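Memo to structure team: turn this sequence into C-alpha cells by end of day. - J.P.
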Amino acid sequence: MIIKTQADKLLNYLTDASNLPGGHAEKLFVPESAAEIAEILKEANEKKFSVTVSGARTGTVGGAIPFGGVLISMDKLNRIKEINNDFAVVESGVLLTDFQKAVDAKNLFYPPDPTEWSCQIGGTVATNASGARSFKYGATRKYVERLEVVLSSGELLNLRRGENFAKDGFVELETKNGNKIKAKVPTYLQPKTRKNTSGYFSTENLDAIDLFIGSEGTLGVITEIELTLLPKPQGFLSGIVFFEDEKDLLNFVNKAREISFETRQNQSAKLIDASLLEYFDENSLKFISEKFPETPENMAGAIFFEQETTEENEDVLFEQWNNLLEKYNADVEQSWFTTTEQDLIKMRDFRHALPVSVNERIVRYKQKKVGTDMAVPDEKFASFLKFYKQKLNTSGLDYVIFGHIGDNHLHANILPKDETEARKAKHLYGRFIAQAVMLGGTISAEHGIGKLKRHYLYVMYGERFLSEMIRLKRAFDPNGILGRGNMFDERFL
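Reply from structure team:
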C-alpha cells in the first residue's frame, strides 16, 4: 500500500469535475485490496477522522473532494476478475472504458452509458450512474447483482441481490465477522420520474443491496462488484434529425417513446424501440456548428435516436422511423442516418462536441457554468421545458438545453459572462429546483448530491425524511467518518 503525505503529491486528488475549491487532506492511501482498506477504515473509525473515497474524480457535485481527514484512492483496485456469458466480476477501480472494451471483445454488452467513460466502475455504482441508453436499459442499479463493501468499522459485508429484503421497515445484515446490523429503511417513496439519484434509495420490499447503490460513499467503501451482461446487439440504426418547429419535435418524441414502450410490452422485434432519445435545443445546435459546420441552420432543435437491429428487421425499422419522421415534419433531407460503426462514432462526437464547446466558452468568460440535472414526471415535462425557456430567455443569459429527453431529463447549462450574471444564474437555478420539486420531480436525476446539492436535498425531502436518511447512515457509519459532507451538511451528523 502506498501512503502519501506531501502536499504536492495530493494535489491531483483534491479536485474533481465540479471544480469545487478548497479541497484538502492530511494523507492519501492507495491500497491494493479490500483487506488494506479495512485496516485504514478501522483506524479512522477508532480515531474518528473523516475518510473520502477517490475514484476517477469525474463527478460533477464534489463528492470526491475531501475537506480534511484522509483520502482512499481506488486506482490500484483495478482488476477485471471474471467475464463470462452472463456476468462479470470487477474491482471497483476498473475504468469503465477498459471494462467496455473487455466486454465487447467477448461479443457481450454492458448497457450503462454515462457520458464520461473515464470513470471507475465503483464510482458508477456509488452514484447509480445512467446516461443516454437508460431510456431503454435503465441505470446502473439494474445490473448490479453483488457487492463487496467495507464498512467504517473495517468489517466486510457481502450483499447479493435477492437475499436480504426489508422486513417491518428494517433491514438486518450480518458482516463477515458475524456481527449484525439493523437499520430502519426511509419511509419516503421515490419521485415518479424515470431517473433519480437524490438521496438513499427507498421502496416497498427494499432489497438491501439497493441502499448501497447510489449512496455516494456514505455507507461503506465498495471494493468488488458483480455485474449482469447481455448479448451484444447485432446492429443498429442511428439518426440525428432536425426540426424547424419545436412542437413537431416534441410530438415526435412522445410518439417514438409511446411506440417503444408498447414494443417492449409486446416483445416485438419489428417495431420501433429506441435505445436512446437525446435532445439539442437551437442554442445547442449553434454551439455544435462551430465544430460541425455541416449542421443545418435555422432549426428549432434536433433529436439523436438509436435503435438496435438485426439483418431481418433492419429495412422495416428504417421505413418505420422514416414514416414517423415524415409524419412529424422532420427535415429528413438534411438529417443524418447511419448503420455503420464509423458514422456512429461521428454522431457520438457530435453529441460530445456540445459540452466541450460549452466548457470552452465558459473558460473564455472566466466563470463557472451553472448546470441543471432535474427530471420530472411524464405529464409535467412539456410545462417544465416551457418554464426553463421562458425564464432563461427573459434573463438574457447565454444558455443551452440538451440531454435525455426520452427520460424527461434535460440539462440546462447557463453560461454567465461576469459576477453579476453568475449571481443571476444561481438565482435561476434555485427557481428551477423549486419548480421541479413542485411538479413532483427530482433535483438530481443522474449526477447525485455530493457536496454541492445537499441544501437542495433538504428542499426536496424536508427535515423528517432527511432525518431518516441520517439515521440510516448512522446504523452503518456510527461515527460519521465516511464521505463526510456528502449528501448532508456535517451539522446534521
